[in-house]
Amino acid sequence: MYMKKLVFGGMLIVSAASLVGCGSQIGSSVRQAVSDNQSAQTLVEWENSEANPEALFANWRHEFMVDSSKRESMKTELCKELQALPAQDLTLFENEIRDENNRALVSGCKEELLAQVDEHFDEQRESMSVPGHALKAVQSRNSFRFPDNTQKRDMSNGYMAVRGDVARKEVVLTFDDGPHGLYTDAILRALKEVNAKAMFFATGKSVRTNPEALKRVAADGHVIGSHSITHACLGTSVACYKQMGNRNLTFDEAAAEVRGGHQAVFDVLGWVDPVFRFPYGETSKDLKAFLKTKSTGEFAWNIESDDWRTQSNEQLLARVLANVESQGRGIVLFHDIQRRTAEIMPQFLRELYNRGYSVVLLTAADPSAKYNSKLVKRKQQLP
């Protein structure tokens, strides 16, 4: 998931320190993660939880490395507590279980835990009318095609998108935080089957980890912007203050995050669309002005999926469709680092089509803008 441990100016920020430890503390932390995920009202609130799995595992890794006397007891206790979770709750920890950085922590139960998660999603698929699979190239049997609907927006002096200025029954599909090494490809397959184009807001850290996945997004004709380097909270709110270790980033630090996300995409593709999404939607007056001076559109959203929350596939599908119908048009927020999102995508697209919605791709009015971003540095050509 998102990075809870960040380095700025040589200062290391580590959250969830109070939950480091072994024995029963691991069990209480695991259960707290499930509780906090369900009770959080917003993504930034969930990310600020000391029991967020990324923070927990980061601190457990630290404890594992510095105190060899606790290693076996930590491994045993962690496996025991994760194995005891209901499968749906266990999915909250799937990305951390898969993360190679956590191999030592879950070495005694990794395969069993992943098998438990896979069995859960196998059961979930049985209740879905359109097959989808995040890990395998499964044909969905979607035989319809959305009509082409590319719309241009002038971003030369900046552009603020909440609904994207689309008409009734038009939606813009957006995916944050990827590309993911597994789930992004499944989402691309679902989109391609039905001629749907989307906007992907990639983080620099994910781009550096999965450059080939980013190239596949580009090859399918989607718009690709950025979402900062590390998913840092860039604004000046209290939420950002807490998220960033009881400090707000300076303007220069925040601007570096914006530039760095764009640079990562540009370095892989040789272009980056002039669109940016602030993590958590947290920004500031100065950062908004900065994007305008860089001829870059700011993309928010008005249709939330809450796909970061543990829930059944049916619950996620019902939630996002209800939000689409409530708004009637606009920008839908998904995350392509969420397995459940990839699993429901084929049926979600069919539901959109059957309900008479059109999928819109928003692009810059100037087709050359993607090659001339004011946020990136180009490599010097040798004479």
Question: What are its keywords?
Answer:
Polysacc_deacetylase_ArnD, Glyco_hydro/deAcase_b/a-brl, 6-stranded parallel β-sheet, 383 residues, disordered N terminus, 2 domains, single chain, 3-stranded parallel β-sheet, TIM Barrel, 43% helix, alpha/beta
Write the layout of secondary structure elements.
Elements (H helix, E strand, L loop, with lengths): L5 E3 L2 E3 L10 H16 L3 H5 L5 H14 L4 H13 L3 H4 L3 H5 L11 H16 L24 E4 L5 E3 L8 E7 L6 H11 L5 E4 L1 H6 L1 H9 L3 E4 L11 H6 L7 H19 L5 E2 L8 H9 L3 E3 L3 E2 L8 H15 L2 E6 L3 H16 L3 E2 L1 E4 L19
Parallel strand pairs: 3-13, 4-9, 5-6, 5-11, 5-12, 6-7, 8-9, 10-11
Antiparallel strand pairs: 1-2
Helix pairs in contact: 1-4, 8-15, 14-15
Q: What is the element string, with H for helices and E for strands?
A: EEHHHHHHHEEEHEHHEHHEHEEHEHEE
> Approximately how much beta-strand content do the residues carry?
5-15%
Q: So, CATH architecture of the largest domain?
A: Alpha-Beta Barrel
> What is the arithmetic mean of pLDDT?
92
Oligomer: single chain
CATH secondary-structure class of the largest domain: Alpha Beta
Q: Which spans have pLDDT < 50 for at least 5 consecutive residues? A: 1-23
CATH superfamily membership of the largest domain, which one? Glycoside hydrolase/deacetylase
Largest sheet: 6 strands, parallel
Helix content: 40-55%
Pfam family, one: Polysacc_deac_1
Protein name: Putative polysaccharide deacetylase
Keywords: Hydrolase, Metal-binding, Signal, Zinc
Organism: Bdellovibrio bacteriovorus (strain ATCC 15356 / DSM 50701 / NCIMB 9529 / HD100)
